[in-house]
């Protein structure tokens, strides 16, 4: 049964004043959705690199509960989790579970910006957006081993085709809010922000920071081959959205006043990992390197990667793929059949076109290329399985247009290699260092310390919300990204 609710249009959100009257309701959440959230929580945490614990996690939880107090929902109904993920994202799932990644926190410059993001996600729950989102996911779910990574890249309508090929798996990555819901959540988040005593102008500064990071990411993406941040995808950003947030903040009558708590926030951010955690592998240009698994591979030019806890997703104009491991008994053919079963759920027949074995960089390999007929046309399915050692196998599972076979992925499947202990030891994490500016230091001199081979000044300015002509003053605190130690 679907519940209905009123969604404000973008225009309505602009004109609707942000009310600051005391909240009278203190309702709970539907037990069905709370139970589902509890059941899904371990899988979400696993997919996004694990949950952080300790002082920083407690700090985020405290800020979240502070803004949730004004949502009309019992604050005890919410659970705020900080994820060890290199994906810039925050999201809410049914039942009041709200997640934010360390990577998104790294874009922020004070506690009020954190409060706005958590308030925005709280607003989605308070407005029952999650129920509508779940209904949409049930109608449009794309599941299976490739469900989380496959969309419309392989031509029109392929999302539906993959939906027929893959029937298992999570629907998390298919869940999207409408633009109207996003504006509604902005409005609610700004209201909570002001009532909780924060500066509501933090909403616009946070959205501006996101816009800067997204624009810079588009510039460097070709060099880094890292996919577009999830937050930029699921929470559409624009100058218009920033302008509307500014207008809503002014309507509260409190813009420019209230708490920002910059020093407290930066103290919590000091030492946070940026980009990939080496324990989960590292994307370095077109190459993925995993120091603990002692392996590396390279994707074709123009293809993008997204690193997850259990898999690396690869996408480009010629198809999409996933690299991961699975149960291995020493029989690569059985391993491949297991992967195909996971992909199809046993509901779609795959006609095998090629079944062979070879070696890649001294690693035994067996592979199959198959073809499946879907309502949207023919899709080629390829699985390359590598016996890395007696107990461990890895595979690339690839989908391309019918007739292409492995296609542009051929160099990738031939690039998997073992890495030396010396190469593995050289891989270090990037971390945020909160630095106090000294006399005579400039944007250029500090940017030179950034642990990146390119766009150092642009990254420094974006990270700190500074204009290109910014002048630093002694005593000012800034964020640097430097090399740290592996944990």
UniProtKB/TrEMBL annotation:
Residues 1-24 form the signal peptide. PANTHER family: M48 FAMILY METALLOPEPTIDASE, METALLOENDOPEPTIDASE OMA1. Keywords: Hydrolase, Metal-binding, Metalloprotease, Protease, Signal, Zinc. The keyword Metal-binding applies. Its EC number is 3.4.24.-. Its cofactor is Zn(2+). PROSITE patterns: LYSM. This is M48 family metalloprotease. GO terms for molecular function: metallopeptidase activity. InterPro entries: LysM (IPR018392), Mito/Outer_Membr_Metalloprot (IPR051156), Peptidase_M48 (IPR001915). It comes from Sphingomonas kaistensis. Residues 228-239 have a biased composition (Polar residues). Residues 219-239 are annotated as: Disordered. Residues 433-480 form the LysM domain.
């Amino acid at each position: 049964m679907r519940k209905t609710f009123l969604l404000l249009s973008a225009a309505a959100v602009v004109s609707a004043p942000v009310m600051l009257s005391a909240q009278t309701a203190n309702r709970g959440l539907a037990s069905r959705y709370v139970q589902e959230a509890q059941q899904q929580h371990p899988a979400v945490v696993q997919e996004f690199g694990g949950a952080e614990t300790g002082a920083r996690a407690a700090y985020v939880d405290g800020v979240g509960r502070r803004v949730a107090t004004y949502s009309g929902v019992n604050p005890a109904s919410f659970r705020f989790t900080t994820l060890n993920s290199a994906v810039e994202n925050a999201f809410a799932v049914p039942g009041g579970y709200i997640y934010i990644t360390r990577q998104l926190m790294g874009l922020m410059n004070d506690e009020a910006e954190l409060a706005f993001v958590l308030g925005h996600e709280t607003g989605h729950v308070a407005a029952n957006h999650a129920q509508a989102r779940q209904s949409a996911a049930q109608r449009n779910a794309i599941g299976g081993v490739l469900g989380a990574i496959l969309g419309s890249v392989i031509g029109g309508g392929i999302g539906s085709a993959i939906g027929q090929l893959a029937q298992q798996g999570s629907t998390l990555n298919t869940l999207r809010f409408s633009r109207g819901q996003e504006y509604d959540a902005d409005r609610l988040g700004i209201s909570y922000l002001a009532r909780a005593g924060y500066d509501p102008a933090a909403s616009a500064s946070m959205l501006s920071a996101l816009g800067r990071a997204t624009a810079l990411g588009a510039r460097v993406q070709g060099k880094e081959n890292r996919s577009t941040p999830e937050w930029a995808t699921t929470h559409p950003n624009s100058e218009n959205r920033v302008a509307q947030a500014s207008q809503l903040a002014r309507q509260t009558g409190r813009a420019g006043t209230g708490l920002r708590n910059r020093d407290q926030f930066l103290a919590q951010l000091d030492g946070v990992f940026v980009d990939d955690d080496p324990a989960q592998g590292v994307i370095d240009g077109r190459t993925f390197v995993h120091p603990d698994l002692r392996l590396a591979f390279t994707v074709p030019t123009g293809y993008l990667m997204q690193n997850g806890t259990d898999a690396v997703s690869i996408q480009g104009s010629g198809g999409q793929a996933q690299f991961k491991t699975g149960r291995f008994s020493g029989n690569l053919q059985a391993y491949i059949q297991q992967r195909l079963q996971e992909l199809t759920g046993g509901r779609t027949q795959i006609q095998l076109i090629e079944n062979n074995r070879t070696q890649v960089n001294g690693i035994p390999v067996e592979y199959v290329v198959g073809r499946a007929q879907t309502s949207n046309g023919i899709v080629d399915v390829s699985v390359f399985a590598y016996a890395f050692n007696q107990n461990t196998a890895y595979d690339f599972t690839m989908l391309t247009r019918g007739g292409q076979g492995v296609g542009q992925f051929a160099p990738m499947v031939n690039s998997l290699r073992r890495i030396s202990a010396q190469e593995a030891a050289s891989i270090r994490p990037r971390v945020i260092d909160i630095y106090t500016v000294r006399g005579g230091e400039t944007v250029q001199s500090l940017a030179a310390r950034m642990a990146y081979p390119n766009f150092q000044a642009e990254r420094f300015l974006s990270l700190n919300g500074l204009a290109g002509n910014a002048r630093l003053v002694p005593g000012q605190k800034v964020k640097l990204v430097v090399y740290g130690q592996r944990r």
